[in-house]
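for the record, two folds in this file. i put them one after another cuz i was lazy. first one right below, seq on top, structure tokens after. the second one comes after a little note so u can tell where it starts
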Amino acid sequence: MDDINLHYRFLNWRRRIREIREVRAVRYQERYKRMLKNGDTLSYQGNSDEVGCYVAPRPLSKGNCYFEVTIMDTGVRGTIAVGLVPQYYKLDHQPGWLPHSIAYHADDGKLYNGNPVGQQFGPKCNRGDRVGCGIYADNFDAGLVTVFFTKNGNEVGSVVVPVAPDGLFPAIGMHSLGEEVRLDLQAAWGSEEEDSVMMVDSHEDEWARLYDVKVSGTDYPKNRHPGWSRGSVAYHADDGKIFHGSGVGDQFGPRCFEGDIMGCGIMFPRDYMLDYEDEIDDWEAVDVRPKQGRVENLMYLNDEDEEEGDDPEQEHEGQKVMVFFTRNGKIIGRREVVVPAGGFYPTIGMLSTGEKVKVDLHPLSG
């Protein structure tokens, strides 16, 4: 009898091992629908009425935290999405449309975060552009992760999302004939940072030190536009929007083009506290000292966070000033903001090849 029981136990053990192997094989198997995969190339194979979707076999992790696609062809509409989804995501939906998924869409530059209605997020992407997606795993163990997106090696924006139980899997979506991308699941992030340094050709000695701005002891992110991160405010030429501590801007003024002169200044209140009580002739020697407040370099918050009162200014107890912006010598608008610890520094941001500006830190003003 003991021999029979031992025999059945051995058979059950073999069966369980076989089942585990089968489950693992399924778990780490890529899934795709209405797509043709040829090596590292994905192309749309539907009729433009139905979505095609690809989900990678393994989720992003601390050791493999970034992937990238190169758009080979935008097809009819360029409806290509790059993002992260749960393991068993429905393959007839674009990444970002369903809960627990997030994606950056190339055709409209919007971020879709578990919702078929997107938010304006970044520039549109075209043929030849590289679109990347990755995670900052600092708070991964707490069930949250910061997902960021890139275009041609430059970070476009980021958002904090909960981590699905099985992880977040790289996903590509397409929705029109002719769309094709080349996928790189082993892409490296950050290796081109030193190659993307902004070149400064200026007689302004002060400008050289502005590349690494210190705000409350923290470097302002080199790969994020002014206005995107907490404690910053900026007027953007491409869309005429003002960005104030968020990757989502508000309509503010006209767009600016070649030859336009954009300006920025501060109106200090009369009771503003300075570091010296005596009259100061050299304004550059003044050290503005608001009450200490922590400035976090978070670039984008979703609507739910904002509704909960996660206002950038609520984290500061510093003094308020009026920041104004001009176009061709005329004030186009003002925004009351809290001065971060350390004060405000003049900053210029660019995001595409060929952009060039002339900087004057001492313009004549009337």
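(here's the note) second protein begins now
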Amino acid sequence: MIKLCYPFRPESYEHMTIVGSFNGILLLVLGYHFYDHMILYNPFSGKFKKVPDPVVQSRTNVYGFGYGTTADDLKIVRLSRYIKTIEVFSLKTWSWSKPSNLTKDIASIGIDPSTFVNGFLYWIAGKMILVLDMKKMVFSEIDSPNKRMINLGTCNSQLCMRCANNNANKYELWVMKEQGSGKSWSMSCLFKLDFGLAYRHVLDIRWSSCILDDEKLRVLKSSMQLIIYEMFKDSYKEVNTLTSFRLVGGKQAVAYVESLVSPWDICSI
């Protein structure tokens, strides 16, 4: 559970998105009207550091968080669908830039932040998957074997995606066996998410679930209860939270390892 202190109080923002994590540090985007503010936050220590805002603020932004060759060169990528710009923030130089060679039609990209896997960022973009090579800073696209994509994630450090199945209430988990190769998709399992819930709640959990790396799904059952579902074992456990929470937009869960790393030192570890 994320519990922010002054000046970042949840009630001051319309939405919050967990973009990604690295070394126990989360990148959070806090949005209000047409403005987004980013912070690096350690949930274990409660320490955070504000990321400078871009020169031009805009709405309908999509984010990515990752690195290319080495982990000490972390970057934040901001795609603005409204003003059609692509900006990159380097944590190493602590500055924003607009790479002239980084051009792409991003009108079809979804609202979810990217999934980072081995030097590449991935976004769902219509019926395709948009890929950004963080080392070369070059975009490409890969095809999907199932066009009914719901969300991306990682499974044992490989890119995966959850897709709707023709059978009602069933889902497919596809895993990319070779990095960046649209021909290497393999359907790993077929599963159902109902947990004995009413049909309306089954529809709700379709969109309120996130893929965790260790072959699990985090499913929101209620404001006080989560479900951790093991896709390959078709088993689950219910987890009661300490306090009630509400959906505030974007990705709602991410797997991370607790650490004492300071947000100020994230690029020196």
